[in-house]
Amino acid sequence: MLPNRIKISKNATGKLRYLKSQTGLTPNILSRIAIMLAIREGSDLSNAGVGEMEGGQELNDTTLFGEYIYIYDILINQYIYDKNINLSTNDTIVAMIEVGVHKIGHIKALEQLCEL
């Protein structure tokens, strides 16, 4: 079961704001993309480097996952199971966003994001 609220780090919040200015996509959509990239790449979350949480953005589950919340629930929980992750679901999602945001941090235009 996904947590009701997810607070991302101050660093990820800043990167998402930057990416929004470059692409026009909102932080929740960019976070969804970041999560899917972390899943696709099979990322090791042990090096996620989750930073300072104070000042980070907080998203509720319906905003973060939208109408696809149940699909994300299945995908994230399967990922936790497959990778034998010992973090809480909340911490796993935060780490996935950190890893994914790092992977898209170089994006300068929406077209580049579409190429991923």
From TrEMBL:
Query: The organism sits in which domain of life?
Result: Bacteria
Instruction: Kindly give the InterPro entries that the UniProt entry links to this protein.
Output: DNA_S_DndE, DndE_sf
> What Pfam families does the database record attribute to this sequence?
DndE
The protein depicted here goes by the name: DndE family protein
